[in-house]
What does this fold into?
Amino acid sequence: MSFQAADLPASFAHKMQRQLGNAFPDFVNSLSQPAPVSIRLNPWKKNRYTQLASIPWASQGRYLAERPVFTLDPFFHAGSYYVQEASSMFLEQALRQCVDLHKPLHVLDLCAAPGGKSTHMISLLNNESLLVTNEVIRSRAAILAENIQKWGCHNVAVTNNDPEDFQRLPGFFDVIVVDAPCSGEGLFRKDPEAMREWSDDNVVLCSRRQRRILSDIWPSLKENGILVYSTCTYNPEENEENLAWLKQEHDVEFLKLRLDPSWGNIVEAEQGGIVGYHFYPHLVQGEGFFISVIRKNESSDMMRIKNSKAGFQSPIKKIQEQVQSWIVDPDALAFIQRDDLVQFLPADKVAEVELLSKNLRLIMAGTFAATVKNNKIIPEHALALSTQLNREAFPSLALNPDDALHYLRRETLQIPTSHTGFTLMCHEDIPLGWGNVLPNRINNLYPAEWRIRMSL
Ligand code: SAM
It folds into this structure.
């Protein structure tokens, strides 16, 4: 589609003309170009896309020449990669350049669904760090939990809270990422609906909401902690003006990032001590995006983390031993049982997770490993996708591309097998989930709510 300035909301076009000056026609022209297609690889999982062109600011980012039907790719469902817009992967530079990623950190992704930035961050953090990934809208929090499970890590907790609830955890976080809900101007090319919904009033509404989110979350950031603020919109009301307001309210320092000329023209906005970075589609191979990195220089009340033995229950010995045998490195993990669900998390993060469960609506912590039903220990789907799975503990069944899709649609499979019992269903040696092989059929254990609904 060929795009004209007249196709844009008039007030938006007017503001962009003022913001971009002579480059405005290039910006409008870029909206007629196809949006680049990009993914981010899971560093712990087998992948078929490693050879593609790299996104220069993101170590695992790759551009695809065209958009495949991701839903019909078993690697997508296995968590081998995450489909993510390229500009937003610049978060990696913010973290690598401003945070010591070798330290054990408490990191919060406050506005996290569907999980692009969370799956990215968990790939950058070390094993001693804990990522709390939060989404206020319940249905979106479920999608977030699904994507986190597919990524396969266990040093993560998923919560479903309003930003103000985090005031119960003063000074808890070393890093907070606020990828704020915004007016979405940077997505007009990919998502025409965002353009139809745009209005001046909505920009004002978004800007107010963003300030509320920032002031609600501020107490839970440690002194010297790092706040990353990002939006996928261009206007100053939701970007620079919010940051100027934050600077007025608090003692903060804006951190500058090193920009490599080979990355394209990322526009540094610096005014009155505020620094932020704009991504425009006519200047970089990505969509519209804004990001700023802020250090909190003022003191903060600090939450004390007590190592209590109360709270979480361990499974009985027989169950724990069985589940441990399914895991590659069980010694570094704590196993807990809540009702009939057994899960594991890093042994040195139990106190933190207990604290989260007492103060927040905790949807998931660590990895779900098994369900105990009628004295039977049934492996959980998340275990099949976990980087901790001991593949030797289960037989595997290799599925061809057609069978892999039948499996992901939760259909009944008729494949001859030489064994019975819980079996890892794999495609090209990457686990997709479980099947229970019976003498005459295979019970498909793929989660009903995750199944592919699209017709083949
Ligand atoms: N960070 C996500 C990613 O990379 O996949 C995208 C986040 S999206 C830009 C903003 C998120 O903020 C949405 O999931 C939305 O539901 C959530 N949100 C909406 N209103 C909110 C509020 N008042 N406080 C916190 N989050 C909110």
Notes: The first helix runs from residue 10 to 20.
